[in-house]
Amino acid sequence: MKGNLILFFILCSIVVKAQDKALAYIATYKDIAISEMQRTGVPAAITLAQGLVESGCGEGDLCKRSNNHFGIKCKNDWVGERVYHDDDTKSECFRSYSNGMDSYKDHSDFLKNRPPYSSLFKLDPVDYESWAKGLKKAGYATEKDYPQKLIKVINDYNLNQFSLIALHRTIDDSKNVIASIDSKNIQSRGINLRDSITSDSSITHSDIKDTILGELIIPVSKSKETKQIVFTPSEVKEDSVTFINTNYKDTISNESSLVHYPSGVFVINHSKVTFVKEGTSLLAIANQYNIALAKLLEYNDLVDDDVTTISQLIYLEPKQIKGLNETHVVGKNETLTMISQVEGVRLERILVYNKLKKNSILKTGDKILLHPPVIMRSVVTKKPV
Q1: Torsion angle (degrees, nearest 10) of CA 172, 175, 176, 179
Q2: From 225's CA, which of 78, 308, 348, 369 has a CA 20 to 30 Å away?
Q3: CATH of domain 2-217
Q4: What's the CATH number of domain 327-381, 3.30.429, 3.10.350, 3.40.1000, 1.10.287?
């Protein structure tokens, strides 16, 4: 038992340190990953996951020697700096960069411009499971479990949020988004070490070894992953990736209106939110997240609803008084309530900013203010004489 306790504390220390390294790496490179997705279409989630795994959170030997975050080898067309590193064989030639940003840009160009990876760009950019499997199929890595490694990292650190930011925000706006990872959420996704020691006293050093990806140690979950729901324009089916239409029932047939969100709790405009399917009990949501039902209804501009009548975003705390963007361009069949939910801005504020009523009919292409108009700002900020 004493040996198990010692091992428990060792595991705790290893996992915490690994998480700290991973979070620091994500904070450093999330913006370039977002920017590269906007430039080339390579999903930010995939880029960050590959960077974490291939470079060992930036601390692998190859990365330290050459700023090569993705293990890209020289190839015949490479004319830049190079280093030699043991990989599949001894002293293989790897590309060398002056800094990490150059490595990220070259990684995007490498995938974008090489025929073996062309089919990946036909995939949904937030379908990270298909991208991970496609990379393996195209020959990016030789490890049999390479896709699973990427998928696990994306799930553990909620990396798909950065692909969403790239799709729906500019790089400047994304700097205002809360991009830090909720450590409690990470721990809930990872291994419960105390329960594992209690329920399984046969933990060995090989169990620790199995969690190591290069020099990045990923918490292992022994619980079965919950199936999630996939929403498509024409059908609802089960899968392990969430594709969600946030423009609700009246636009579900419009494929251009599709927006994709991760499962579980994520952040829009600094407010915590989750996406639930039609028929979900609002009382159950309130109980799950320890929120009074009246408050949950208030946060989402709902009135005495028992269950959700459509698949929709549900905020778990108050929305903000202004948006990340100055304006929102109205899409087909969008309402002010929908815009409030999608942008994470309080509905009553949007009504005031635009001098509209809740049931005002909008036209496609209209611009809805998400910030106070200039004249209102000047009145508010004017100093007394």
Answers
A1: 150
A2: 308
A3: 1.10.530.10
A4: 3.10.350
